[in-house]
Amino acid sequence: MDFATIIELLDSAVRLGTPLLLACLAGLFSERAGIFDIGLEGKMLMAAFFSAAVAAVTGSAWLGLLAGIGGAMSLTLVHGLASITFRGNQLISGVAVNFLASGFTVLIAQSWFQQGGRTPQLSGNARFEPITLPGADAVKDVPVIGQIYDNLLSGHTILVYVAFAMVPLTWWVLFRTRFGLRLRAVGENPESVDTAGVSVIRLRYTAVAITGVLSGLAGTYLATGLAAGFVKEMTAGRGYIALAALIFAKWRPVPALGATMLFGLLEAISNRYPNIDLGVVNLPIQFMQAVPYILTVVILAGFIGKAIPPRAGGQPYVKER
Amino acid sequence: MEKTPKWIDVGLIPLLNLLIAFVISGIVVLLIGENPVQAIKVMIDGALGSPYGWGYTLFYATNFIFTGLAVAVAYHASQFNIGGEGQATLGGLGVALVCLAFPWPHWSIALLAAMIGGALFGAAWAAIPAYLQAKRGSHIVITTIMFNFIGASLLNYMLVNVLRPRGSMDPATARFPKSTYLPTFHDMPLIGQFFGKSVPANISFFIAVLACFLVWGLIWRTRLGYAIRAFGRSESAARYAGISPVKIVMAAMLISGALAGLMAINNVMGTGHRLVLNSVEGAGFIGIAVALMGRNHPFGVFLAALLFGFLYQGGGELALETTIPRELITVIQALVILFTGAFDNMLRAPIESFFVARANAKKEA
Amino acid sequence: EPAIIYDLGGKFDKSFNEAAFHGAKRWADETGGKYKELEMQSEAQREQALRKLAESGANPIVMTGFAFGDTLNQVAPDYPDTKFAIIDMVVDQPNVESVVFKEEQGSYLVGLMAGMASKTGTVGFVGGMDIPLIRKFACGYVQGVKAANPDAKVIQNMTGTTPAAWNDPVKGGEIAKAQISQGADVIYAAAGGTGIGVLQAAADGNILSIGVDSNQNYLHPGKVLTSMLKRVDTAVYNIFKEGTDIKPGIKVMGLGDDGVGVALDDNNKALVTPEMLKAVDQAKADIISGKVQVHDYMSDDSCPVK
Amino acid sequence: MSAADQTNAGRQATAALGAKEAATPAKVPAIELKGISKAFGTVQANKDIAIRVMPGAIHGIIGENGAGKSTLMSILYGFYKADKGEIWIKGKRTQIPDSQAAISAGIGMVFQHFKLVQNFTVLENIILGAEEGALLRPSLAKARKELKRLADEYELNVDPDEKIEELSVGHQQRVEILKALYRQADILILDEPTGVLTPDEADHLFRILDFLRKEGKTIILITHKLREIMEITDTVSVMRRGEMTATVKTSETSPEQLAELMVGRKVLLNVTKTKANPGDTVLEIEDLRVRDEDKVERLKGINLTIRAGEILGIAGVAGNGQSELLEVLGGFANGTGTIRVNGQDLDLTGKHSDGQSRRARGIAHVPEDRHHLGLILDFMAWENMIFGYHSDPAYQKNPLLMDNAGIIAHTASAMERFDVRPPIPTLPAKSFSGGNQQKIVLAREIERDPVLLLVGQPTRGVDIGAIEFIHKRIVELRDQGAAILLVSVELDEIFALSDRIAVMFDGQIMGERLPEDTNEKELGLMMAGVAT
Ligand SMILES: Nc1ncnc2c1ncn2[C@@H]1O[C@H](COP(=O)(O)OP(=O)(O)OP(=O)(O)O)[C@@H](O)[C@H]1O
Ligand SMILES: Nc1ncnc2c1ncn2[C@@H]1O[C@H](COP(=O)(O)OP(=O)(O)OP(=O)(O)O)[C@@H](O)[C@H]1O
Ligand SMILES: [Mg+2]
Ligand SMILES: [Mg+2]
């Protein structure tokens, strides 16, 4: 494998890892606040549809982005109502959210566009176009560094850069701000927050709202950056892979970057080399596709460092039985 | 302590929740510019209006009984088995391998062997998450989700690289031998005359009904069921009593996986007669809705499975007869799960506090 | 009343199924007739969908895609009075018409154009699901490319091994990008809905692409070199027109009877040079006359060129 | 002006007020509650409660388990909302919809179950909810300084950078107190603070409370221990079954009177029992060691013997290994060392160290916590009556099915014998009151004529009538020749029932005494680990 191929694979990994990263950070805010979220898939899908639909109609990717966030937000509200206000089962709510998105997007898409659950193809300003970083053309021919800068770092859509910027930002918010302290506390022991005079409900709604924004970005990137329009079920399990990455990263932002990029790289490799012949064994593509899930199970099993979720995760905050 | 009457808990509240789900679905239909009354008419006609419709409704219901029971059994041990999809997928593989392995002399023998095959494979696919939960505390919801995907990949590999007959382009197994075909409703005495040849409902339906009885007996009449329920209600108390958590989690999940795997006798062996990709079609997930609706009781599961069988068949007809996409049933299904599951407290809390207030008032008087 | 069932890619895949839809629609527009149509949601529904239509009295019933083959083989005998037609697959039943195409011929022609249009000498092929049928496309294409430029390199990728491979534009786009980085400057997508992503990535990467089945030149005007037309629309139209009189047996559609071809219109006018046109016309004539034999991959499951 | 500043101002105002008023007799109460009622479902936890607490005083609240003490204080602190009633703070009617309002009003509370974030540092826990601004750094710096001052002033030393999960219970409690002080509380509520402390630690706490009182702060102290009430409080209120039965000056009452107010009639803590007539050795424990999940050694080499027809009482402050001892003996914790019953070794690990195997060896166990261990609250009485013995052949109809009808009949008669009210086998366990729940457990375990009975806190939260009944049954079982291991945190109960007393401290047996040769004082010192 030559250098150019490696760069190309990494470049592809960045593109494919970005929706995972955004969704993973989305899940991080929710789960750190004690709300389990297996509905990331649904939120992304909803965002993908609404962003593509609005972008197609208005011709503006930015309006599409707003709509995408709105779409994800509507499901966040459902999940928040179920898990915060009605103190229901968060896992069941997550399952419902996924189904809701899966059915609703196609239903509306068919009703609006009559293209069998697709949106029209997006082109021009309806998509987020790649951005060439300053000087990329100039350094293009410098060996190694130039190639990395031009091919790997430059030439992604704005949402990719936003996603990467979200990693240090998330870390900073979580560990350096009052909001982050409270957020982590409410996921560990909501009573401590409540008795300290801070509203558990408001904190948790804020957290899931951030989840809505980030999963909205994830879905929007998928439909208007990575692809050029919505097709049904286009998230294709990415929400679950993001969830897997979240566990893999043990609910921490910087490892989340590593995990999602690793999973992105795996996808890039399996796109390019469907079958990997290691001499001894021939790894079929199906194996490559299953690797993120297998890795997550291994991590969950605690064979490589145990993943301990936030202590109050998954339980509704109930004061009076 | 006074409690709300039982009929409220298992009757009124689920029905009200269902009603809300349907009303909202109706609004969605209106939103996409269609007529909900017309839609429900098409669904009822298509699913219940003819023996043909019934044949499909009961066929789907059979799937959902198995997966609903699977979720319910695990639930009694307080395990949320979201992996019915993967377990049913693997069950299909087991059934297919049995059917193809041997020129079975008679369907009845083949059925017995296939039931063992399906149950074993389904149980095996539940075994690892169960073991990890019991021994290492890995959250079973996440592991079973992961196993759904791993299972899909495994089946994909088996169909594409191993089981596909030479020269075939489909990722599917070869046809099973004719001798493994299960009798459909059409082939049965007494009822056969009502059902056409194409009706897929088959003897598996009766096995599913039998499974309801067996699960009921297991949960409420046997020592194992007692231990499962005890563990499910209070893990700490179960430990005090000497009920081994590992054993119970394993037992409940193996039974759960086996039930999900058994579904394959219906959708793989009973019809189709070969194993194709995605033969489960989401039935594993619908099992969650079915168990929720049915309050984890086999009889409730049976009724809820009929309801979802109706939705499935009716939804299919809807797609054919109107311009409403089939995805409407996915939405209905989501709303049912949402309102009977996640939003349950929305109605339950006010209704229960009403009864508490009444009880308190009575006490005062 | 005739009926049509589309395969998993869906009616609006801008490609194979959409071509079938156009055929049906043309028939309806011309005759004012009505037809039933159904889209598959999953593999397991095939039989129900088919039986449902048969029970409802539809006749003839057309289905698009080889994947219906096995199911149709089972179902057809149960409805001896109904006529069925299947595209892309041979089903040997007395009431079934099987329509197959000589895709290798059309692919040869677009390969020829790709070979001539390529400046780098490297062209790409993105297939959908990895099955002999798609290899047949690839093999014809490679033969055409080599005919234009014997030194040309053809990068071949398949999208997957399951029907999901027909409907994954994101993956199609990624594969195309990888091929671009390897130097491909013309990419032929024979991948159903996945091809949309390939064409998009090619347009984004400022190289040429080749569409398939339907005329896809309009998707990115000036960026799609041409489309390999597979006249599924004509096939469906003809079947609907013949109605219950369709003849059971195998019907092969090739260059000779305009079953396959290349798309030329305003959208790619600027891209197609007169030499290309000439070469294509020449090759077409040679193939029809038998002077040029395009190897059919499915005849021996192998391709003489790489 | 931040909330902290506001309370600061408030604090100075009241401090001044307190100082001035110390001279004049007509004081405004620091806290006055009027007509507070609160129901949880059908449980009326607080009924029309009125109470006045004077500033600069320590006010005790006592009452049996479940009397409603914690509920009342949680209402004052804004954790629960009262159904009815008024709260007056420093003479002003105050709405306390949430804890924020309580904190602003100068109230701090140390809950019975601490409200700390386990994997946060002390400092992070202190500032949570009382941060200075949107960024943490300045808050942490300020808190560190303030913490040092408080530590010096009140002898409340804790390492500000230690994680809570690394701290002992006593230190965790200090963090809770520091939290309140950091928020400038001048009314401090402590809910059963000494339940988890050694007498030594408790003394330290009382010194601090005394100090705070001198500063003019108002303190509400909830406790079960009459001795503590008599020792430190100025006034005391008694609660019974959700009602406030009396408020008296401590100097004008006696423990006997308080006990009577608590339970509603004269307390009879003497069990009539004959002298023990011990037989052969039944239980021998040698060098028993137990580690918990975090690998911390909770039992550090226990040696004990009990003979047939003898009750061995284990005294000790909760959390010193008594629970672990019962768990190992009962078969749901692993250990090392030797345990012999009637001369035969018990497995301490592996699959024969479970409850089933123990029961097969004639060991019955009335666990400390009936809600989490002894009963399944959702199960009906009859299902609970066979809990742990459900595999007993007597309860099976055939190899496959259980004999449900037979079990129900058996349960009905056992309920009669043990005076469980109401005697309805199909009622779920949660519908019975605490005392009746305990009788169900007792009936199940005692009626099996065990060789060895393990009893933990047999009368916790049980009314006086039931206590007598339960004590009587335990003594009866002894007289039939069973060996009995009794664990209780109530010294009175230990004295009343035991034939021999062993004291546990920090996972070890500090020593053994005969009840007639010792007294509460001596045992108290042993429980604190200062004497053997
Ligand atoms: N959150 C709650 N939900 C429902 N019931 C509760 C709740 N908290 C307390 N109760 C009930 O209210 C009653 C009073 O409980 P509370 O905790 O106030 O008693 P307490 O006097 O503090 O007892 P203890 O001495 O055991 O701490 C009990 O019957 C209890 O079961
Ligand atoms: N947390 C709780 N949840 C539900 N019900 C409860 C709870 N706590 C108490 N109850 C019920 O409330 C009623 C009164 O309970 P409580 O424990 O206060 O009884 P009690 O009057 O103190 O009786 P006893 O003296 O026997 O303990 C009982 O029926 C009990 O089952
Ligand atoms: Mg209390
Ligand atoms: Mg009580």
From TrEMBL, chain A:
It is a multi-pass membrane protein. GO terms for cellular component: plasma membrane. The chain crosses the membrane at residues 12-30, 65-84, 91-113, 158-175, 207-231, 290-308. Pfam families: BPD_transp_2. Keywords: Cell membrane, Membrane, Transmembrane, Transmembrane helix. One of its GO terms (molecular function) is transmembrane transporter activity. It is found in: Cell membrane. This is Sugar ABC transporter permease. It comes from Thioclava indica. The lineage of its organism: Bacteria, Pseudomonadati, Pseudomonadota, Alphaproteobacteria, Rhodobacterales.
TrEMBL record, chain B:
InterPro entries: ABC_transp_permease. Coiled coil: none annotated. One of its GO terms (molecular function) is transmembrane transporter activity. The chain crosses the membrane at residues 12-33, 53-75, 87-104, 110-128, 140-160, 199-219, 240-263, 275-292, 299-316, 328-347. Pfam families: BPD_transp_2. It is a multi-pass membrane protein. It is found in: Cell membrane. It comes from the Bacteria. The keyword Nucleotidyltransferase does not apply. One of its GO terms (cellular component) is plasma membrane. Keywords: Cell membrane, Membrane, Transmembrane, Transmembrane helix. The keyword Cell membrane applies. This is Sugar ABC transporter permease. It comes from Thioclava indica.
UniProtKB/TrEMBL annotation, chain D:
GO terms for molecular function: ATP binding; ATP hydrolysis activity. One of its GO terms (cellular component) is plasma membrane. It is found in: Cell membrane. It is a peripheral membrane protein. It holds the Pfam family ABC_tran. InterPro entries: AAA+_ATPase, ABC_carbohydrate_import_ATPase, ABC_transporter-like_ATP-bd, ABC_transporter-like_CS, P-loop_NTPase. Residues 31-266, 283-531 form the ABC transporter domain. Transmembrane segments: none annotated. Keywords: ATP-binding, Cell membrane, Membrane, Nucleotide-binding, Repeat, Sugar transport, Translocase, Transport. Belongs to the ABC transporter superfamily. This is Heme ABC transporter ATP-binding protein. It comes from Thioclava indica.
